[in-house]
Amino acid sequence: MAFRDQTIDAFLQQLSSKAPIPGGGGASALVAALSASLTHMVGALTVGKPKYAAVELEMNDLLKQTEALAERFLTLMDEDAEAFEPLAQAYRLPKETEADKAEKSVRMEAALKSAVQPPLTIMETCVATLPLIALCAEKGSVVAVSDAGVAASLCRAALEGASLNVFINTQGMQDKAYAASLNQRAKMLLEESGKQADAIFRSVLARLDG
Questions:
Q1: Which residue range forms the structural domain that includes residue 181?
Q2: 13 occurs within a structural domain
Q3: Would residue 15 count as lying in a domain?
Q4: Band of residue 132 on the pLDDT scale cut at 50, 70, 90
Q5: Of 40, 58, 77, 121, which cross-links 26 as Cys (Cβ 3.0–4.6 Å)?
Q6: What's the CATH code of the domain at 153?
Q7: CA nearest 115: which of 89, 146, 147?
Q8: Long-range contacts: 32-35, Cβ < 8 Å, 24+?
Q9: By three-state DSSP, how is residue 158 classified?
Q10: What are the residues whose beta carbons fall under 8 Å from the beta carbon of 48, sequence distance 6 or more?
Q11: Residue 164 has pLDDT above 90, yes or no
Q12: What torsion do the CA atoms of 98, 99, 102, 106 make, to the nearest 10 degrees?
């Protein structure tokens, strides 16, 4: 059964078990899906209200985008697990002979390069979500502005969590140039979008703590 089809309780039970999946990558994708869904909620509370007629078109477009983003994040939960499975198998390969070691090395490298892709995609998808959260925080219904702030916090948490899953995979790669390029990409996303998420949260906090 896909993780997205499990109950919350079943997913948490599996997450807290010794099973290698789901792990931090899947959890990050789920947190990101919550962020996109909260953003969708703020938009839904804004459309159709005369007070927000000026942003009706923007919010309707936001609803379509956040629905697609939440769906993408849920899909990434399973993509992360599927990409990790070959890596888990590679870790278990024997290394008693030189031939064993060579085979394991090749399998590990391929598995690491595969496993790093879902968390990097989670990060990139978080980046696509943040402008929509910012729109909700600035122009969305004031009764749900706190939810926009929560969405920003969750999006940052997902971004940070996914970055750690990028770094742990690149750490074991033999192709150091490729690993460095992935690390650079992840650090750039983390730095720039982390600041954006912080700014959104602070703007919401200032409005509520005035």
A1: 22-208
A2: no
A3: no
A4: very high
A5: 77
A6: 1.20.120.680
A7: 89
A8: 32/73, 32/76, 32/122, 32/125, 32/126, 32/129, 32/154, 32/155, 32/158, 32/159, 32/162, 33/70, 33/73, 33/74, 33/77, 34/154, 35/126, 35/129, 35/133, 35/151, 35/152, 35/154, 35/155, 35/158
A9: helix
A10: 56
A11: yes
A12: -160
Among all chains, which residue has been given the structure tokens 């509520």? 208
The per-residue pLDDT for 147 is 98
Q: Kindly tell me the sign of the dihedral angle through the C-alpha atoms of 42, 138, 152, 84.
A: positive
Q: Quick check: 1 pLDDT over 90?
A: no
pLDDT (tens digit per residue) in 43-55: 999 999 999 999 9
State the average pLDDT over residues 78-88.
90
**109-129 mean pLDDT:** 96
In a domain, 12, yes or no: no
One-character DSSP codes across 67-114:
HHHHHHHHHHHHHHHHHHHHHHHHHTS--SSHHHHHHHHHHHHHHHHH
Q: Is residue 17 part of a domain?
A: no
Q: Is the pLDDT of residue 11 over 70?
A: yes
Find where tokens 């750690």 sit.
164
- Distance between CA atoms of residues 189 and 83, nearest Å: 22
Looking up tokens 């390969």 gives 93
Q: How many domains does the chain have?
A: 1
Integer Cα distance of 48 and 106 in angstroms: 57
